[in-house]
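[step 3/7] fold_predict: job queued, chain A
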Amino acid sequence: MKRNVIVALLVSSMYTYSQEGLTPVSFEKVTLQDEFWSNRMKIQKQVLVPVAFERTQEAVNDLRLTGEYLKNGQGTLPTSSRFNTSDLYKVIEGAAYLLKMERDPALEKQIDEIAEIIAGAQEPDGYLYPAHSTGSSQDAEHWGGSGMGDKPYSWVVHSHELYNVGHLYEAAVAYYQATGKRNLLEIALKSAQHVNQVFFEGDPGYHGGQPINQAPGHQEIELALVKLYRVTGDPLYLEMAKKFIDIRGITYIPDGEGTMSPEYAQQHAPVRCQHEAVGHAVRAVYLYSAMSDVGTLTGDPTLSPALNRIWHNIVDTRMHITGGLGAIHGIEGFGPPYELPSKEAYNETCAAVGNVFFNHRMFLLEKDGKYMDVAEVALLNNVLAGVNLEGNKFFYVNPLASAGMVDRSHWFGTACCPTNLARLIPQLSGMMYAHTENEIYFGFYAGSEVEIPLTSGHVKLVQSTAYPFEEKIRVTVTPSGKEQSFSLKMRIPTWTGSQFVPGALYSYTDKQPVNWELYVNGEKVSHPVMEKGFVCMDRKWNAGDQVELRLPMPVRYNKAIEAVQADRGKIAVTSGPLVYCAEGIDNEGDVNRYVLTASTHPEVSTIREGVLQGISSIRNIPARYMDSKGAFSSVSLTLVPYYAWNNRGVSTMNIWFYENETIAKEETEVLPVLLKDIQASYVSNRENVWNIMNGKFPVSSSDTEMERWTSGARGKEQQIEFIFDKPTDVKSFSVYWYDDNERTLLPENGIWNTKIHRVTGRSPLYIVLIPTAS
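[step 4/7] structure written:
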């Protein structure tokens, strides 16, 4: 009884502070009504979530085998995967959001059955991790190591134990909010109380009874604990989230390189002393999201300076124009400032999802529209590009250009990206509105209906719009009282000004803002009041009042600052919040060889048929095309939204176009006069087969800086084809073997043969690499 009173007092105090910040309107209280997002939700329900459940069955089976082992002390062991259960939990979370929109008994039954299996795999004290509960981790360690340690919590830096249960907590909260069922929630609470005991109080069964007091290598549990706090009101979970944040970079700092470097998981310094975004991008933005949450709910002002430094570092030096983060392969993370390549960009889909989470939470903390501007760009460009329009193929990596060999995959061995999409898109309605005691904020624009509780009474809003393709956003306001005073705040995006997205990296070439307009009950507001990116309407409202915001979306041309070497002398095209790209399927030749002058402002039109029906495109842009001999011709260019690329087959793709012919000639390979073309059976998305003719030689067989073409399809015959204008004598041909000391190795005697096929009387010359043993 005493604990209940204390809990009530603490929660009251914390929520009093939260009203000084912003309270998000939860997803289950918003009804979507527009075509853009409603179609997405339909695909999520009918395709993406069922596909994701089907492809996470290994995790279900691992949990089932664990339950049987715990019950009987023997049986078939589960796999030694560190994180496959996390993918299952994310799919459950996404399915729960869909259930709130439309109850589905069959889907609920499926989740309830999985909940029983999860409960069976949980140890009596709350521990939940199949590999350690059954000993399959020890087998994995015996056969070369699995990165999880040989017993519970012995390798927290990489085991994913806390990462996995964090995703379980988020799924449990979503399922409880959607259905009122506590089956998953009870499992989550039992686990969280166990984690608190082991990590912060000490448990005789773990770590010699001493508190582990170490932050996890992969952040996630911090975010999830905040959600447990929001749904239960128990301050224990918020305190745990804060503790994990407070001890990061203090109680444990790894000492190594690569994935064991201190920066990789942001463990190089206490979080309040960190100044820039470093390491693995997904881990980083999950951490920053949790820091924002904790700052909002506890009123801890010491987190904000670091958050602001890091946010500016990202948008000023390390973010692609699509909102993509983590440009560097290998560490899946942040590289040096301004290193933002196009074809070589990594930009993991999960990092873009995390970018949305981080900026939405910063918006709740600081009530500033610039954060939702970044979230919107990341969402509508990089996130949505991560899944095709049918909902069954995915990108893990999101480059900004392609030589024509990039395609989505049906699934991945590490399936964090498709399962993150399964859970993010259905919860977007929970990011559309937020409020204080007497203010309503519009985050994302979408056709929707919501009722928001204010101190003066409830307010019903009905929003109608075809955003992001059309400029008008109409809102019908219906307060519960006859006349009600409150403030309505609608976001005016950064893209209406002199640049597309906040930060120092990108700006429009013309720098002229668009003239947006605001109308209330049909009367134009002549002197709108702006505050931190929002136009404010503070007045007495009556039932049926109408607000209309018009955000014109002309075609705009963008340049990056000179420090971004990859984008020098190039321009990108945007309209409204969307980045546009060219695909080979719509245009002549390789779209990476086009020159735009940014001298015209074409109109955007709607595609009327095919898989892209209903999506806006930009057509008939005057351009110049450079052929393989360096000659230019006048052509017209067609662009589609970046998120919609790779839905009509594989072809070349490009976002950043050359600004003039001189730069195009300097940076684009031109074939010798007798050579018509070069083609290869395989080209990595990070390389170009034309590098064969660049006249450069590597420093050594492990030269990673060399612009090159390397074969990539292991154990298969691979072919390079040189096509000449006419039959030509070839004096010599050399193959330089590349050795990265990892996956690509020098050939051993007898393993690889190189054969040259010359076709008499015809122009092609074939060089074939033939493996005689796999």
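[step 5/7] annotate
The radius of gyration is 28 Å.
The chain has 17 helices and 28 strands.
exit 0
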